[in-house]
């Protein structure tokens, strides 16, 4: 995997997020709106600031690196600025999809066609050893929560009306 130098400032991170306006991974909305919608979904479900920021930045690697590397790329690029929890959850959101698809056979049908395709590129279903290891991860439930909101953050015709709220929250979390 090709890593860039990690981000150094909140401005760099916000700029990278803004660059995703109009960028598509094949879903019905662009990556900018998808990440805003995911953050909004987390906020509406009562998530704390760190989880909202994880939702805002979870797909920062999409459009920049291949599907199988996008989560690890984002986690690596953001780790110097964010807590280990946020970086780990971002890095694990594709694993969470693999996990849920493995343990809940009905979940596959709820995924978008693009998400079904990327599941294969991201390793497919988990082995029993992978399931056990993932369940024992410190932030396992956070990764599942992000995954649920990730799936819910793909609403055509919905525009997050206050991106500045999320920008300010990002600056607050980074500058703690």
TrEMBL record:
It comes from the Bacteria. InterPro entries: HD_domain, OP_Dioxygenase. SUPFAM superfamilies: HD-domain/PDEase-like. Residues 33-98 form the HD domain. Signal peptide: none annotated. It holds the Pfam family HD. PANTHER family: HD DOMAIN-CONTAINING PROTEIN, PTHR40202. This is Phosphodiesterase. It comes from Dictyobacter alpinus.
């Amino acid at each position: 995997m090709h890593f860039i130098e990690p981000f150094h400032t909140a401005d760099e991170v916000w700029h990278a997020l803004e660059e995703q306006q109009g960028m598509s991974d094949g879903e019905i909305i662009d990556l900018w709106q998808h990440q805003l919608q995911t953050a909004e979904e987390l906020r509406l479900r009562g998530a704390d600031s760190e989880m909202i920021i994880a939702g805002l930045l979870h797909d920062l690697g999409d459009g920049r690196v291949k599907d199988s590397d996008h989560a690890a790329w984002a986690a690596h690029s953001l780790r110097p600025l964010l807590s280990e929890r946020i970086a780990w959850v971002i890095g694990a959101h594709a694993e969470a999809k693999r996990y849920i698809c493995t343990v809940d056979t009905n979940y596959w049908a709820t995924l978008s066609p693009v998400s079904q395709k990327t599941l294969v590129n991201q390793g497919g279903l988990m082995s029993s050893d992978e399931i056990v290891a993932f369940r024992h991860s410190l932030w396992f439930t956070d990764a599942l929560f992000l995954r649920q909101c990730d799936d819910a953050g793909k609403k055509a015709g919905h525009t997050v009306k206050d991106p500045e709220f999320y920008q300010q929250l990002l600056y607050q979390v980074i500058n703690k």
